[in-house]
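[User]
If only I could read backbone structure tokens as easily as an amino acid sequence. I have put the entry right below:
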Amino acid sequence: MLHEELLKDLKHLKEHGPSDESDGICIHVLDEAEYLLQQMFCYWPKYSGSPSYPVPSDNPDYGAYVAYVDLHYLDKWNRDTQYGRDRWELLDFLIEFLEDCSVYVVTSGGVYPHEEFDHSLTADFRWVLVKNSLVPDTGVDDILEPVWASGESDHPCVVFVWS
């Protein structure tokens, strides 16, 4: 499952550090997971506004791109800089965020936790990543059933929809 692989990669990065101090977070995850990662950046309170450069600059004269490419080219992960501390904070945030998520499968026949879905029944379904702490007490069925027809949801608990 994509979110599980992403979580594993992020935990590995946290435990072992980056393979190269000049690399960002995205280079350390599966290519298929990068778009999901970018969807999660916007939930981080310090998000720069750029999905390609989510860590804000620690210099008010420069934006996130310049901070990533020029100012911190070789020390993106240096905990002695605000920029490096923010990158580690983002990594922790992403891990905690994913640990609070579940994946559901939505079909014309209903909504299922992905662990309980029998893929042999149909090839026509959508995956939905849901932030558990934002799910209302009534559950996810009423929220996710419309995803089948539209392919999207504006409910705050829905992080990402893919087919």
About this structure: The mean pLDDT is 91. The chain has two domains: 2-98, 101-162. Residues 82-99 form the longest helix (18 residues).
